[in-house]
Specification:
This protein is α/β, with parallel strands linked by helices. It contains seven helices and ten strands. Helix 5 links the parallel strand 7 and strand 8. The longest helix is centred in the last third of the chain and has 18 residues. The chain binds adenosine-5'-diphosphate (ADP) (2 copies). Its EC number is 7.3.2.6, 7.5.2.13.
């Protein structure tokens, strides 16, 4: 089944910049999709359009068959993990994870259960009472992921989440991400400009260049065909 279907998506910024130029792609349910391309090719603009942070100029976005092109962000069922994590500095790890559930007015028992489950899955038990400033980059990333995943989105977008980490930590976090992807059964869209990362992570690759989608296919076909 198709999870995400993007048709004719175009974004022209108010200053006239054509950042995304009539792109089409779709992602199958449960796939780990990597959106790749050089800096300035329109990856962030695409991501922000999917999540509803910026209005699109033209085109259609469907999630699970539902047209969400003009839906408000909070109704989209899409999680976004930022490059710099953006944890709330004044809340503990546990409170950071619970925050979105409170805003959705999920009742206290269910909140506690969902937070406990995700904390276990992410192996954050020993960190639940810590403040974000006490955490390493890898730990912060796990908290940022937990905070998105606890809302059980249909689609999780990750905006270069391993960009600032050293190589060893990056490899470790890649393995964690792949494990989580298997366990959570969620569709991932992971943005990067790093081809080696894409080859390690992706089921499917969407290659962008200069505002266009150049290729959208399995990792084998994108990188192994002549
Ligand atoms: P990437 O994420 O691949 O680096 P972006 O989506 O950030 O690419 O940018 C695509 C193009 O749109 C670039 O030319 C960039 O300068 C431009 N751009 C991004 N944001 C804005 C904005 N708010 N206003 C005008 N131009 C923008
Ligand atoms: P990223 O690619 O990770 O989004 P950038 O440094 O490209 O980071 O962009 C940071 C912010 O600046 C974003 O909000 C983006 O929309 C905005 N931006 C990027 N390029 C331009 C531009 N040419 N004009 C105006 N705003 C821009």
């Amino acid at each position: 089944d198709v999870a995400l279907d993007v048709r004719g998506l175009t974004k022209i910024y108010p200053d006239g910049t054509l950042a995304v130029d009539d792109i089409d792609f779709s992602i199958n349910d449960g796939d780990f999709c990597v959106l790749i391309g050089p800096s300035g090719c329109g990856k962030s603009t695409t991501l922000h359009s999917l999540v509803g942070k910026i209005p699109v100029t033209e085109g259609e976005v469907r999630l699970g068959g539902v047209d969400i092109t003009d839906a408000p962000t909070y109704e989209r069922d899409i999680g976004l993990v930022f490059q710099d994590f953006q944890l709330f500095p004044h809340l503990t790890v546990g409170e950071n994870i619970e925050y979105g559930l409170q805003r959705l007015q999920v009742d206290a028992d269910e909140r506690a259960e969902r937070v406990t489950n995700i904390v276990e899955m992410m192996r954050l038990e020993s960190l639940a009472d810590r403040q974000p400033e006490e955490l390493s980059a890898g730990q912060k990333q796990r908290v940022a992921l937990a905070r998105s995943m606890v809302l059980e989105p249909k689609l999780l977008l990750l905006d270069e989440p391993l960009g600032d980490m050293d190589y060893k930590l990056q490899k470790h976090m890649e393995r964690e991400l792949l494990r989580l992807h298997r366990e959570l059964d969620t569709t991932f869209v992971y943005v990067t400009h790093d081809q080696t990362q894409a080859m390690r992570l992706a089921d499917q690759i969407v290659v962008m260049n200069d505002g266009k989608v150049e290729q959208s296919d399995s990792v084998e076909r994108v990188y192994n065909e002549p």
